[in-house]
Amino acid sequence: xxxxxxxxxxxxxxxxxxxxxxxxxxxxxxxxxxxxxxxxxxxxxxxxxxxxxxxxxxxxxxxxxxxxxxxxxxxxxxxxxxxxxxxxxxxxxxxxxxxxxxxxxxxxxxxxxxxxxxxxxxxxxxxxxxxxxxxxxxxxxxxxxxxxxxxxxxxxxxxxxxxxxxxxxxxxxxxxxxxxxxxxxxxxxxxxxxxxxxxxxxxxxxxxxxxxxxxxxxxxxxxxxxxxxxxxxxxxxxxxxxxxxx
Length: 246
What we know:
Elements: H1 3-17, H2 21-41, H3 53-56, H4 59-71, H5 73-81, H6 83-89, H7 94-114, H8 117-126, H9 131-158, H10 162-178, H11 182-188, H12 194-202, H13 205-213, H14 219-245
Helix pairs in contact: 1-7, 2-4, 4-9, 4-10, 5-9, 7-9, 7-14, 9-10, 9-13, 9-14
């Protein structure tokens, strides 16, 4: 893999986001939903505590709907417009293209997250929050966004239809999100050995993000999200290689 090629593709893709109104629409929707859920559903003022727990607790659900909207165009658009073949004629590998596109989309998601900084300023004006906890929660949220994005990128590589890519990406994210919920665990506990039930629960975005949202960065949680991203990129590359040879 060539760092120069990855960097060039990342720059091209990242710039392309801001040449389309969709990027601005996405950011506006993200900020509006994040603010509304924090203030009106999370009871930001009612709690009387200077922290951002009401803000971060909704991130898994926000990402479930919004990150597939970013990921659906990564490969589906290239395949539909026929530019995938042109891209693959360039002196780059499939891995270069996959990593470059992923990094651009992940950075874009990071910018949307950074633009929620007025909330951070607000809690500092209202009280004396633990800013280390808030910073750790932001890092954890971005890691989780990367996990959702890796799944969505794989879904996008499977189809030239962006709607199908969105639904498939959201479905994969939902499975990872719910795998540790007690309702799901009680269902699979009846027909799977405990070791497999525990293993499935370990893949849950909700349980892995829970400690990060409280500002606790555990090594196993960081390894989980980075491993998921790495596995997603490898599978994404394999799919693109298969499409090239088909």
